[in-house]
Amino acid sequence: MTGPVFVDTNVFLYARDRRDPSKQAAASVWLEYLWREQLGRTSMQVLSEYYVNLTRKLVPGLPPDEAWDDVRALMHWKPQPGDESLMMRGREIERRHRLSWWDALVVAAAQLQGCVLLLTEDLQDGRDYGGVAARSPFSTSIGEAEARYVAMSVAVRQPRRGRPRAAARSVSGR
User: Fold this and answer.
1) What is the pLDDT of residues 56-79, one digit of tens each?
2) Domain ranges for the chain
3) Do residues 42 and 80 lie in contact, with contact meaning Cβ atoms separated by under 8 Å?
4) 5-158: what fold?
5) Is the pTM of this model over 0.90?
């Protein structure tokens, strides 16, 4: 996989949740891979949700200091801040795809970071959101994703040819 992969809150939580060993193992494999390859991306929104869920909702929960250590480590992924560009893109996505506001912000953060893959259980598995494919980490393997999304990222980077360029020349008078 050549492009960055956005990770949603639930994937981080499953890696910590002992109640479902198969999901914990799958989430852990994905996260280990993304750390090793330095392809992991996330957002400040996701990290905030992760911290709250780790300390207040996960059973058994983590002490705040231990949860904060996780969040601080994930700061190395350069999380997308909640800024004007994120809000504007999120609004477009909310309207176009009829997503909840919070899900739209996750998709927007993935787009703004140039991700081709969004690991989440909260969105329809396999659906494309403007070049970002939402996939469940429990229904796709790293090998499958590498084969599919390497090809996808190469195709996305190809410059368009034909009319738009010719039209630009006629406008400039050349």
Assistant:
1) 999 888 999 999 999 999 999 999
2) 5-158
3) yes
4) Rossmann fold (3.40.50)
5) no
